[in-house]
Amino acid sequence: RGGGQLQRLQLLFSRGGADSRGARQFVEEAASDFARQHPDVVVYISPRSIPAPLLVAEYLNGTVREELIASKTSEEIVQLATKLAGHSGLDIIRIRKPFHTDNPSIQGQWHPLTNKPSALTVQGPRLQPQ
Amino acid sequence: MVVLSAARWVRSRLTDRFWRVQEVLKYARHFRGRKNRCYKLAVRSVRRAFVKSTKARREKKRFLRALWITRIEAASLEHGLKYPAFISNLIKSQVELNRKVLADLAIYEPKTFKSLAALAQRRRQEGFLAALGDGKEPEGIFSRIVHHY
Fold first, then answer.
1. What is the predicted pLDDT for the residue at A128?
2. Where is this region: Disordered (chain A) (predicted)?
3. Contact A13, A68 (CB under 8 A)
4. Which of A99, A110, A113, A120 to mutate to test the interface with B (most CBs of B within 10 A)?
5. How do the domains of chain B map onto residue ranges?
6. pLDDT one-digit tens code per residue, B65-120
7. Which residues have a Cβ under 8 Å from the Cβ of B106 and sit 6 or more positions away?
């Protein structure tokens, strides 16, 4: 724990293809700067023949997040990549409670026999009905 | 050349109707009956569900407070105190715990709650002595007010 939770960033784009133009410019200009600024992130550049260019982010807890970068400029892709590098891999859903404990009770959780006299619970050999 | 409107012989087709419909249906999937499948019924149901959830945020606060009060009442009755006596005497003893925390203590820390009930009971008795037995008994210890300036 501590430091960035982003493990690897895969940039899938196509060599021709008009919507990969921003991705190709990003690869030429800003990809190495980004990789140098985030030394704990592994950046994979894979030119393939895919229909739409993707940025796949994988986190240390196993979450995989895919973002479309079709028809985005190089600066926008840099902003998106820095945003993804700042995320932890937790799901982006509504958090029900802002707190959580594994041990909520220290004195023992209440049960119907907590405040009753112990003659009801104790079963001893010498306990005679009075 | 500036063109402000498309030529008359150019027509456009709606190609992503499926995704526009799915955006609404995804919030209706757990509903009952045809309104979880049919778009026309689902639009109305989803809108009403959102409106109800917005308005219910104000009711939730009232509901939770009533729940906490019920739980504190049950726990203090186990120790022989009624809820108004318990709360008023805790406030008079300068114990500024809110109902949420008191309910959690009653569930998870029963011994702490028992000691709080004993404190409220003692303060109650001192209040009775101060009101009824004027001048003869000394002032109660738990009735002293601490000023944090």
1. 60
2. 103-130
3. no
4. A110
5. 17-59, 62-132
6. 999 999 999 999 999 999 999 999 999 999 999 999 999 999 999 999 999 999 99
7. A110, B71, B72, B74, B75, B113
Which architecture, in CATH terms, is B62-132? Orthogonal Bundle (1.10)
Where do the domains of chain A lie, and which CATH numbers do they carry? 6-86 (3.40.30.10)
Antiparallel, parallel or unpaired: β A42-47 and A54-59: unpaired
Q: Which amino acid is at B122?
A: R
Nearest to A78 by CA among A17, A44, A35, A40: A35
- ipTM > 0.85 (yes/no): no
Q: Which of B75, B79, B109 sits opposite A105 (nearest CB)?
A: B109
User: Which residues in chain A have Cβ-Cβ distances shorter than 8 Å to B60?
Assistant: none
With contacts defined as CB-CB under 8 Å, which chain B residues touch A108?
110
Neighbours of A73 (CB within 10 A): 13
Q: Which residues of B touch A (CB under 8 A)?
A: 75, 78-79, 106-112, 114
- A-B Cβ pairs (cutoff 8 Å, strict): 24
Note the pLDDT tens digit of each residue in B43-58: 999 999 999 999 999 9
- Written as one letter, the residue type at B120 is A
Closest-CA distance of chain A to residue B134, Å: 36
Pairing verdict, β A6-13 and A42-47: parallel
Q: How many helices (H) and strands (E) does chain A have?
A: 3, 4
